[in-house]
Amino acid sequence: MSLTREDRSDIAELVSLHGHLVDDGRLDRLEELFTPDVVYDLSDFGREPLSGVAAVREAAAAMGAAGPVAHHVTNIVVTPSADGRARVRSKGLGVRADGTCGSVTYDDTAVRTADGWRISHRTVTRRGAPGGGPAGSH
């Protein structure tokens, strides 16, 4: 399967929209990002994967003031899959209210739906070790 330039642009915009919606507190719009049955894998943070948009919304709301005040996504790489999906890898930076920040890698599966591209699976991996290893690997 190949992706058009429009597909690639739409997918990159989809990934970028995440930070805007979360930072603006627009958790009511997460259906614009995720399929209803999305799996949001936070295993690297010692949490069970979340299943469904409602679970993602509840987890984001529960973070409250402990969550980042700003999410920034960079280095978006979109790779088509033979099954019609797209694999998307990006880097995320989260800035906290105290000025500290953390880095993650997002590994997403994007699928085309009747409403446009949506993320059906997201794995979030902590970054932090020099040389590109996961946090805690040094």
From TrEMBL:
Domain SnoaL-like intervals: 6-123
Pfam families: SnoaL_4
InterPro entries found in the cross-reference section: NTF2-like_dom_sf (IPR032710), SnoaL-like (IPR037401)
Protein name: Nuclear transport factor 2 family protein
Species of provenance: Streptomyces boncukensis
Classification of source organism: Bacteria, Bacillati, Actinomycetota, Actinomycetes, Kitasatosporales
